[in-house]
Amino acid sequence: MKLATPKPRPAGTIDMVPMINFAFLLLIFVILVGAIATPDALPVNPPRSNASAQQPPDPDTVVIDASGRVAFEGQIVEPDELLLKAQAWQASTGDKALIVKADAATQAERVVVILEALRAAGVMRAQLLTTQRGGG
Questions:
Q1: Does the CA dihedral 119-123-124-129 come out positive or negative?
Q2: Which pLDDT value is given to residue 62?
Q3: What is the pLDDT of residue 22?
């Protein structure tokens, strides 16, 4: 019985399978180790709404936690500091919308005060971030 022997490859060919395996392994490593999104400066649980449109994550966010503390662009700020930072942000971004992410337990009056401060700073477009309600 004669077994088929594999044909020898020409000297100029390179097997690409190991290199492709290495590239995929490297890609998986980067995905697992890398940060997908930066965490908020303050922990918040946004209120729920019936809106179905999902807002993409954006670094231009004002975060208000349950106690009323405010973070802008990842740093905790005081109300007067927020006005100055929002003015600088508006001057540099133009017509871009600023996302306001407030905790569901935050007093509504505090959110209104922050929105009024943003309007006084010249921010023309501010969007309140909510999460979609569950099925019931």
A1: negative
A2: 87
A3: 94
